[in-house]
Amino acid sequence: MNETECVRKFENLFDIYDRIQDYLDLSESLRRYLDQKRSWIDRLKSPEFPVAFLGTFSAGKSMIINAIIGKNILPEATKSYTAIPTIIKKSDTEAVTIRYLDEDARRELRNLYVEEIARELHKSPVPFTRMENQELLTALGK
């Protein structure tokens, strides 16, 4: 079954549900649940959808993404090339555009991570944001 057939089947299912829902003895929570699932149709119609790949350092995330796409577009190495959020979008051309964060954006992203970690540790983030990377890693390790 291709995507178009799948969308059509979901649309048919919800058309039928809409016509008979007044005759069904469904709980309010089940009705809300079914109404929330209508978003499936919009998601299936959309040419883009978010997928997150999470894992530890050098766990093979880029390798899996390359395998799914069928092309080697992400670097597969033990260095952290894709340690920041990496967005992949379909294109009509066989091209890859790489946009790197500038120094200010990298510092801002680093500080967001530091603040989140400090919050989890129930500590003030201020001293951590002022530390250099190696000093920060040592402090967080303790």
Description:
By secondary structure, the protein is mainly alpha-helical. The chain is built from seven helices and no strands. The chain has helices at residues 3-20, 28-36, 39-45, 61-69, 103-120, 126-129, 133-141. The longest helix is centred in the first third of the chain and has 18 residues, at 3-20. The model has no long low-confidence stretch (mean pLDDT 81).
Percent strand equals under 5%
For this structure, the quaternary state is single chain
Q: What is the CA-CA span between the terminal residues?
A: 53 Å
What shape does the CA trace take? Answer: flat
Low-confidence stretches: none
Number of strands: 0
Major sheet attributes: none
SSE map:
Elements lengths: L2 H18 L7 H9 L2 H7 L15 H9 L33 H18 L5 H4 L3 H9 L1
Helix pairs in contact: 1-3
Short description:
With about 140 residues, the protein is an all-alpha fold.
